[in-house]
Amino acid sequence: MKRLQNKIARSRLSLPLTALIALVVWGFSSAIEHRLWMQFTCFVFSSYLMVELNTTFVLLRTYSRMVSCAFLAQTCAANFLFSDAAGGIVSLCIVAGLMSLFKTYQDRLSTGWTFYAFVPLGVASLLWVQALFFLPLSWIVMWLCLRSMSMRTFGASVFGVIVPYWFAGLYFVFTEDIATPLAHFESILEFGPIFGGVFNKGIEAIYPTIGLDRWLSLLFTVILATTGIVHYLRRKNEDKVNTRMYYDTFITFTIASVVYLLLQPQHFDMAYRMLVINTSPLIAHYITHTRTMVTNLSFIAMLCGIVALTVVNIII
After folding, report:
1. Cα 112–chain centre separation
2. pLDDT (tens digit, 9 = 90+) per residue, 29-81?
């Protein structure tokens, strides 16, 4: 029996309609008025790469565009991120990195794709140096999930991360500016109080910094992620082995993003972008491959929640 969630998940109109709604949300968020063209361009390309990620690696067993729809919906709900150009570039780098990283699956000689996977991480770290904290995790994913780690691919990954710094370094050498790159790397050692000092001063210690809009968005996304992870772990045997490895990667990065976000909430916006990207395939898998009355009701609740969250964040 096809329920509402299945009809929407498998409809060819779902993605165009979601994209149209996303354009409306950008308009209501004053994106056009404030000329956020770079941010919008990064959003468009990130959305396109999410479509390619789903299609290229067959993340869902049946035809469905729910991966990209989930990404569009969650990103638009967190419309407080629209004004951050650096964040938009980081999001694009994360998706581009995943595309190339998955190409290395079970290929310990794939130095080319490994290099292409880690260049975006290097670019992202130029804008947000804390992205380098996810470098060791990427190596662990290559080793345990994608089974592509070797001395060659390890060297290619290091080379890929370094290359953007070579080009940036040439600029700073030309301008004789050494202070800026030094300050950039020194900032990676700047840690805020664990959980933002919440144990010492209470939740109000970090509430003014993060704000109600971000707390609500985080809560909603964590609920989606938890739902998707629990569902996937229960039904993972129905997927092919390579698909399981991809979802294990999403789960790993999702958990790491939540942990890092809670430990160092001053980097909320950047870590939240990574969380949204990796949560989208998980919740898309749940929506597409379940068909009970309970899951249908939960899907309707998710739709209502995402609409309410989008409106609230626009108003706030």
Report:
1. 23
2. 765 556 788 999 999 999 999 999 999 999 999 999 999 999 999 999 999 99
What the block records as the tokens of 304 is 């209502």
Nearest partner of 105 among 150, 147, 53, judged by Cα: 147
- H-type alpha helices, 147-211: 151-174, 179-186, 198-201, 207-210
Spatial separation of the C-alpha atoms in residues 274 and 138, rounded to whole Å: 13
The DSSP 8-state label assigned to residue 193 in this structure reads: P
- Rounded-to-integer distance, Cα 73 and Cα 85, Å: 19
Contact 139, 158 (CB under 8 A): no
Rounded Cα–Cα distance for residues 211 and 135 (Å)? 29
Integer Cα distance of 260 and 262 in angstroms? 5
Residue whose tokens read 């994608």: 146
Q: What pLDDT, on the 0 to 100 scale, is given for residue 37?
A: 87
Q: Give the span between the Cα atoms of 16 and 25, in whole angstroms.
A: 14
pLDDT in tens, 125-155: 999 999 999 999 999 999 999 999 999 999 9
